[in-house]
Design a protein that fits this description.
The protein has 269 residues and is α/β, with parallel strands linked by helices. The chain has helices spanning 35-48, 72-80, 84-103, 119-126, 154-162, 164-173, 179-185, 197-209, 213-225, 231-245, 249-259; strands at 12-16, 19-24, 56-61, 108-112, 115-117, 129-132, 137-139, 176-178, 190-191. The protein is globular, with a radius of gyration of 19 Å.
């Protein structure tokens, strides 16, 4: 995949200076997902594991909203008539999008404003960093449509971000979490003026992209892997990870730049 030439069919993509930007682009309906866009997003995040030129990713929505979740007419309607094997194929496919996001090496930054609901809330949750506009409303609204809150990893990931009790409240009630609540609870890293939230996410992504890409990927890997580790196992895993990073040229570049009283220029190797 050449990131400069990639042209998705179901969302927008741009690439510059090591940062790829995904824009969900159905603004007239608050950027809902379809069967096809789920699959294409999953495939993109899987492919990015083999695209070292992309060092950070921003995901956002067009038209003042992030994502309203699965399209009522194009997804929810057809699901009502599906057999169990087809339903399970669908739910596994949507879960695979979260797996792909968590396993792609690039840090993912969600620039969120307006409506962020259902699968949209999951995409924000699965990102590594989240910025919000003041009017943002996040809703894990699955139980409001007769479904369990345990969708696409929500019961595993959300409590680790905001705590078990707060996650339980959102998943049982399906209510909106405001931007202020989200920041206070640790879901959002910060609240940014609506007109600046995407620019701030791009600025953060550029800062990450200018850093040591191999080491950043290692950090993301360890943040994910250590959920299932005890402290002793995590310390050993980090010792091995750091020893590997100490063999990179970027580590040597940082040392030589420090000695020369210069800013290091990282190349990702």
């Amino acid at each position: 995949m050449n990131p400069a030439d990639y042209q998705p069919a179901h969302f927008l993509w741009s690439f510059a200076d090591g940062v790829g930007t995904i824009t969900l682009n159905r603004p007239e309906r608050k950027n809902p997902l379809t069967f096809e866009s789920y699959a294409e997003l999953r495939d993109l995040f899987r492919a990015l594991a083999r695209v070292p030129a992309v060092k950070a990713i921003v995901i956002t929505g067009a038209g003042g909203n992030f994502c309203s979740g699965g399209d009522v007419h194009e997804i929810i309607g057809p699901l009502v008539g599906m057999t169990m094997p087809d339903l399970l194929e669908f739910t596994r496919m949507t879960g695979d999008l979260v797996k792909a996001m968590r396993h792609c090496p690039q840090p993912v930054i969600a620039a969120v404003d307006g409506i962020c609901a259902g699968a949209g809330a999951i995409i924000a949750m699965a990102s590594d960093l989240r910025l919000a506009a003041p009017d943002t409303k996040v809703a894990f609204l699955f139980n409001r449509v007769g479904l369990a809150g345990c969708d696409m990893g929500a019961c595993a990931i959300l409590p680790r971000i905001i705590g078990q009790g707060r996650a339980s409240e959102l998943l049982f009630l399906g209510r909106n979490m405001t931007a202020e609540e989200g920041e206070r609870w640790g879901f959002f890293n910060r609240i940014i003026a609506q007109e600046s939230v995407l620019a701030e996410a791009a600025k953060m992504a550029a800062q990450i992209a200018s850093g040591p890409a191999f080491a950043n990927a290692m950090t993301k890997t360890q943040l994910h892997a250590e959920w299932d580790m005890g402290v002793d196992a995590a310390i050993e895993a980090e010792a091995q990870a750091q020893a590997i990073c100490m063999q990179t040229k970027d580590f040597a570049r940082a040392y030589h730049a420090f000695v020369a009283k210069q800013k290091p220029v990282f190349e990702g190797n």
